[in-house]
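Entry: Lipoprotein
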Amino acid sequence: MRTYWGILLSCILLSGCGAETLNAIELRPLSSYRVEQDPEVTLTEQTKEKLLTYCEQRPTDVLPKRRAKVAEVTFRHPLYEALGYKNVKYFAAGEERYLTCANSNQLMERTFAIEPIQEFEALDKERFIESEVVSTIEFDRVEDMKEITSAFKMNDTHEAVIADSAFRYTTPDTGALYVTFETIRNGRTLDPIVEPRLFPFQSGENEGYVFLTKRADNRIALQIGKEPSLKQLVLPSMYEAPYMKVDAKEEELSLEGNHRELMKRIILSEQPIEEDVSEQTSLALSKTYGTVLEIWGHVRRPVPNKMSSRPIDDEMQLAVFESKRDTVWLDGPKTQELFDELSHVPMREKPTDAVNVGQLHLYQELTKQSFDVWKTETELYLIDQKTSRSYELPVNDYFQAN
């Protein structure tokens, strides 16, 4: 059978010459979710809808340091795990109640002061025991590299953990670790070469690892997180060298304040580095050995009324065509092509001789839009099931089998 999607896309790309076009994409929240929650928690549909409403609002508050995490609920797509999640947590602080929501497409949690929610208030009182949140990232050096290679199923032949670079960390408060890079070479600081990176973490304890690896192609990679969400940054080839030494500073890093702290220094050299470098400045080391890469970190706190979105991930978009004969999934780069082309198509009424051939479902993160698909001998019509708007796409043999 000829692939439906290739025909559809080729037809779209040839359409619309001289015609006024409109955006056919109007994604809407899902009508149902797969809910992950503690067995003791029973939520009504009204409460679920209320929780999800907060996930679309601008944050209004910041969590107090003394608090108790009472419950946690995660909403996912009922079928497609890759389309993301909404993670909601309920907190008690004295008589006050707070709710946080972490959307998979957002960098920071959203926090709200709310009225008590009875389903959570009815839980065991032990859940309401408060504790003081310590605002520091804690680092513990990992001495046995097998702990890293085993946790992340790494093959030393392809990628080896660099000595003295591995730490286990705990982030006990909400926010994100903002990492910047400075390069000192031959006695001077160069213009920025490596783009800054933001590594968000959610409220409550978050454990993970931060370490450096040397790949088979001699490139260095910074890795941070835990399975299955380990983040990797491969450094440019200019940071390759026969010899390197890591001067780690993680134990001194603090979440308090907006100041940054030096996390690591990587000394890269054409000659062995055998001396203790901890007391020497990066400027002096660069004059002796050539290049020093400093890795700095500081914590960004959530700010009320401000949200930071991630770029749309191709894996969080999906298109599915359903007919009486078959179901076809379009993913990967062509999904983005389809979304782009449907954003500017002509709106035209379906003729009476059109035949219904199936349904097209578009997904982006936890939103959905469905079209009824109709076909004539020469045209294709997509009718939005919610608004009944009809969009025209030229087609030849879109649904014909070989």
